[in-house]
Specification:
Helix content: 40-55%
Shape: globular
Strand order of the largest sheet: 4-3-2-5-6-7-15
Keywords: Membrane, NAD, Transmembrane, Transmembrane helix
Oligomer: single chain
Number of domains: 1
Order of helices and strands: EEHEHEHEHHEHEEHEEEHEEEEEHEHH
Protein name: NAD(P)-binding domain-containing protein
Pfam family, one: GDP_Man_Dehyd
Largest sheet: 7 strands, parallel
Structural class: alpha/beta
Amino acid sequence: MQKIDLINKRIFVTGGAGFIGANLILALLRNIEKVQIVTIDNLNDYYDVELKKWRLAQIEKELALHPEATFEMIKGDIADKACIDQIFASFQPEIVVNLAAQAGVRYSITNPDAYIQANMIGFYNILEACRHSYTSGNTGVEHLVYASSSSVYGSNKKIPYATEDKVDHPVSLYAATKKSNELMAHAYSKLYNIPSTGLRFFTVYGPAGRPDMAYFGFTNKLMQGETIEIFNYGNCKRDFTYIDDIVEGVMRVMQGAPEKQIGEDGLPVPPYAVYNIGNNQPENLLDFVNILQTELIQAKVLPADYDFEAHKKLVPMQPGDVPITYADTTALERDFGFKPNTSLQQGLRNFAKWYKEFYG
């Protein structure tokens, strides 16, 4: 593994107004001296844009505390090749973290175009820009880190999910695009010797997260007196991973690139890796809902006498969904000495407090 010192590095983060992207930028500003960050985000309306603007405002506040750091936000789309090429030409990033994507399993069933644009064409543009960063003898990109997803495991029966498992049977277009990202990255790593690492994230949650995720959507519905639907009659299990653990994992991985090597055939051995980042502790959805309602009452988001039973409905599995997600994090622990460990109760407590402050 090639160690990388992030101090004074030029880092290009895509999806900087997104949940993981914004939190990663905040962590880089807080922890890395003289860091230089450029981000791109199209601020689309897949969910409330005000939430994305709030995250960017937190970044600006943090930036004011670190005058030695630089940050630039570009409103644009990674599917716009000219825009990506311009950023690479002017900024010349040394580390690239691709977090921009169209997320969500169910949305991919009704709006497939968005996934092909962002997750396929957009990622291709990033790979091409990384490839051309080495022209004319330039050092170029030292490490490309990109978001994959636990969705690639589909309905694999073997648990916990290990990165060595076959993932050839996606059950949603979203999962198929993320598996495609891994295949594309492998091809580019082999052909152009680009050090790349894919990260399979498992159900990321926390303050200022995505409103389409269960914990956030449930809270919104309960607040409005609506009924929440618990899929597979409550028999789903999810490996919920708190946002701070995800960010810590990403930052550690950024600092350890797969090593460039030449094989016996005189051609590059692809400097390529994939890791799971998950809590390694799946939680039953009904237990999750019970913890969430306790924390919502504790934070005074909902009254103590709220009738949860009247607002819960057990329903069948949805298309594209899977019964369980469960991360084997052995490789992450072995190579980076890190294992996510935030309890679901603590994570949901932090979310409930934030929700109360944000929505009053």
